[in-house]
TrEMBL record:
Residues 22-88 form the Spermatogenesis-associated protein 20-like TRX domain. Gene3D superfamilies: Glutaredoxin. This is DUF255 domain-containing protein. InterPro entries: AGR/TXD, Ssp411-like_TRX, Thioredoxin-like_sf. Keywords: Signal. Residues 1-18 form the signal peptide. The lineage of its organism: Bacteria, Pseudomonadati, Campylobacterota, Epsilonproteobacteria, Campylobacterales. It comes from Sulfurimonas aquatica. It holds the Pfam family Thioredox_DsbH.
Amino acid sequence: MHKLIISFLLLLVTTLVASESTVKINWAKDFDSGISQAKKENKPVLFVYSRHSCKYCVILEETTFSNIDVINSLNKDFVSIIAYSDENDAMPRELWRPGTPTMWFLKSDGNPMYQPLMGAMDETNFLKALEIVKMDFNKIKKSGK
């Protein structure tokens, strides 16, 4: 009986870990469709300019963007868009910056809320940034700007 309980618990933990790791950020198909979605849902936008061959882009995606709390916050409160320079993804010229990764927080109309964040950021600080952006975006919504 003891082995049966341990086997069941092991199966349960394995299932939970496997299901958590399959949760992903709901990236918009492209910049324009992401902005359309943000306008419709009245949400702020995380726009990431990245490159597959960029060491810090890979670190950002494998750590911060794989964190379940980051994923849940982005999927619930933001529209997330990612564009890859090495795939020639379209992006507004005014958002281009030399170097990747570049992360912009945008209002739902596509205009920047702040200057971009450059480089990889750990989960803890990124979650703090998301909270600040949500708070500022809600102030903007209330003011009607």
